Structures are given as C-alpha cells and as structure tokens.
C-alpha cells in the first residue's frame, strides 16, 4: 500500500514537515510493507520556504537584511533543488510576528528588506524567483521593496521618502527608470492564495490592515492614500494593475510585483508543481492531508482542498486529519472519504496546541489501524482470486 501524506502546517504548533513525519511514523509502525511519501504543503504563507526546500532537496542561504522596523535581522533565502530558482519568504523578512504587538503599525513597517534580499540573490546569480507572500506585517504597497530595487519615490521638495508605509501619503513623484538593471532580467512567480485587489473594501487595507495595527477609524484615509499612490505609479509606467486579483496580497506587495511583470499564482499550485505532488499520486492508494482547523472555508483554495482535487484526478481517495473541525465541516465529506480532528474531547485551544504532537500521533495511529484492515482485506481478496484462478 502506498500513501501520500501532503499536509499544511498546524499553525502555531507544528510545521507541515513535522505533521508529515508524525503521520508517516504511525503508518509505518502499524501497516506492514507500507510505502509513505511525505510531501509537505503550503499556500505561500509561513513555512512555504521550508516545504519547497525539503521536497526538492534545496539549500538555504543565510543573509542579514533590514527587517520590518528597518533594523537589521538575520534571515535567509532558499534555492530549489534545480539549482536555479531562488525562494523568498516574506514572513521570514517582514513577517508580522517579527513586530512586537505594541509596535504593530503599518505606517512604520517596511518591505525594504524584501527588495534587499532579492538583490542579494540576484547578485549571487539567480534570475528565477518564487516569492511567498503570506504573513507580512506591512501595508506599504511595496514602496519599500521597490526603493531597495532602485525605484525613486519623492516628496514635493524632491526629497526621497522614508521606506515605510506612512510614506504613501507623501509620494508626489516616482521614477522607475532608476530600477536596478539586474531586476529586468529576473522572473517572479508569486505564491499567494489572496485574490484581493489593492484598494477598496475588499483590498489590502480594509481586509488585512486591522490585524497589522490599522485602527478602524483610519482605514478609509489609508485606503485613499494607497489609491493615490498606486494611481500615480500607474500613470508613470502606463499600466493599470491595482485591480488585478492578488494586487492586495501582503499589504500591496502583489501590486508592486505585478509592476515587475510577475505572475501571481495559487500558492498551493506552485508548491505542488515544484514538489511533483501530482506525479507522486499516480500509483498511490490513499492521500492524507490536513491543517490547523478545517471548516467550510477549507474548500476555498486552501491546501487540503487542493490536495483532494489532485487526488481525485488521480483516482485515489483522500483522508482529512486536522487540528480541529469547525463550522460547516460537514461540507467537506463531498471531497474527503473521512474527516478527523486530533482532539480527544472538550479542550481549550492552548491545550490542544501545546499537546499537538501527541494528539496527532494518536489520531494518526487510529487511521493507520483502519488502513491496515483495508490492506489486509485486499490481500485476502487477492489470495482468494489467485486460488480460484489456479483451481480453474
């Protein structure tokens, strides 16, 4: 029996790789001769870099770069096993957890470090990039990143604006002719499952601004400033991109990358393509996937639903094993043959996260025992069929 284990992370407790290894251990322990293929998944958020490097046997490169508060931090970029594709994870450079709660205010945070890391990788010889947009602390429309790449943003007095979110209020002139020439030779694939435009009620500021520190009474003026900033740039470059789905990802980084001719794609699809998940499923018997919490929203492009779609195309059934099952989880039975929560009874979120490893191991063991029975039944059926054939 071959089983493909392709989970997302259980955010805040276990990485996708840790989840995969725990499930693998339970399967191997309880099912004789089982073949388990771990393919950790991600959707462009935190952990996507680790997932891609593990699955492709890639490498990490440690660098120092300005963080979200413009203080230098130790960070990294990766290179896939193909030796030519660099991977940049926004959460590792300008991530929200990198900003203390009492300092979370996107007027003061920056994407400058992202551009800095891109340049470092480009100067190391890489021209193909996968950029993972999830988990940012910023809402600067990519201003800081573009500045690091050479673009000039000037105030009324022709003075360069600081590379922080608040500067979008003051930009009066922009010059893309100063963009570092090396960037013109680079190709960017953007891993993001956010389809928001840059501005408006469904845009970066209104949807994601509050969790980054934007007060409700400031949302409208911030959004209007973002619109003026984006419109100024679009008039300068002669392209309209702020309404393209995904432009609002990562506080407008999607918009900035679109200006660099990037292609915004499903983060799950990019990871699946890079790890050849479809190929691994061709001769599998089952797939197991999961996430921190599964509910009706899981069906809207999240990792488990994407895995289930690929498995269905390959003609195999998918089992869902998640940290918890939330509102509307009943809808998931149309896509998974069974849905499981790792909890063993009424349990606070903190307790569940603290004991996630043990709870997952126990739940995985139960699934493994059921799959063993299925394997045993199939074996007995083959023996009976063989005896009948020989008898005939």
From TrEMBL:
Signal peptide: none annotated. InterPro entries: Glyc_kinase_flavodox-like_fold (IPR018193), Glycerate_kinase (IPR004381), Glycerate_kinase_RE-like (IPR018197), Glycerate_kinase_sf (IPR036129). GO terms for molecular function: glycerate kinase activity. Residues 353-380 form a coiled coil. Keywords: Coiled coil, Kinase, Transferase. One of its GO terms (biological process) is organic acid phosphorylation. It comes from the Bacteria. Gene3D superfamilies: Glycerate kinase, domain 1, Glycerate kinase, domain 2. The keyword NADP does not apply. Belongs to the glycerate kinase type-1 family. NCBIfam families: glycerate kinase. This is Glycerate kinase.
């Amino acid at each position: 029996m071959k089983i493909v284990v392709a989970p997302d992370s259980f955010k805040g407790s276990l990485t996708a790789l840790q989840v995969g290894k725990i499930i693998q251990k339970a399967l191997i322990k309880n099912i004789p001769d089982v073949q388990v293929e771990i393919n950790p998944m991600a959707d462009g958020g935190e952990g996507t870099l680790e997932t891609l490097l593990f699955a492709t046997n890639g490498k990490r490169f440690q660098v120092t770069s300005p963080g979200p508060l413009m203080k230098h931090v130790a960070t990294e970029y990766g290179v896939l096993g193909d030796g030519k594709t660099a991977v940049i994870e926004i959460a590792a450079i300008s991530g929200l957890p990198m900003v203390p709660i009492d300092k979370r205010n996107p007027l003061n945070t920056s994407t400058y470090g992202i551009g800095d890391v891109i340049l470092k990788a480009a100067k190391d010889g890489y021209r193909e990039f996968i950029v993972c947009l999830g988990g940012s602390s910023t809402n600067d429309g990519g201003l800081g990143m573009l500045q690091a790449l050479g673009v000039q943003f000037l105030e009324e007095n022709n003075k360069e604006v600081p590379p922080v979110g608040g500067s979008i209020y003051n930009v009066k002139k922009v010059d893309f002719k100063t963009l570092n020439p090396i960037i013109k030779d680079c190709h960017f694939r953007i891993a993001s499952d956010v389809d928001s435009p840059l501005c408006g009620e469904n845009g970066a500021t209104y949807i994601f601004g509050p969790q980054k520190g934007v007060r409700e009474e400031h949302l409208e003026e911030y959004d209007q400033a973002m619109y003026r900033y984006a419109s100024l740039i679009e008039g300068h470059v002669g392209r309209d991109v702020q309404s393209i789905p995904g432009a609002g990802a990562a506080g407008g980084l999607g918009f900035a990358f679109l200006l660099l001719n990037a292609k915004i794609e499903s983060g799950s699809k990019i990871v699946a393509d890079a790890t050849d998940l479809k190929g691994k499923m061709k001769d599998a018997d089952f797939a197991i996937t999961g996430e921190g919490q599964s509910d009706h929203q899981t069906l809207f492009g999240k990792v488990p639903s994407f895995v289930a779609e690929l498995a269905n195309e390959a003609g195999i059934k998918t089992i869902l094993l998640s940290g918890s099952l939330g509102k509307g989880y009943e809808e998931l039975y149309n896509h998974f043959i069974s849905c499981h929560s790792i909890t063993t009874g009424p349990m606070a979120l903190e307790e569940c996260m603290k004991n996630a490893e043990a709870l997952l191991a126990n739940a995985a063991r139960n699934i493994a025992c059921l799959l063993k029975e299925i394997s045993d039944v199939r074996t007995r059926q083959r023996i009976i069929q063989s005896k009948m054939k020989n008898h005939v």
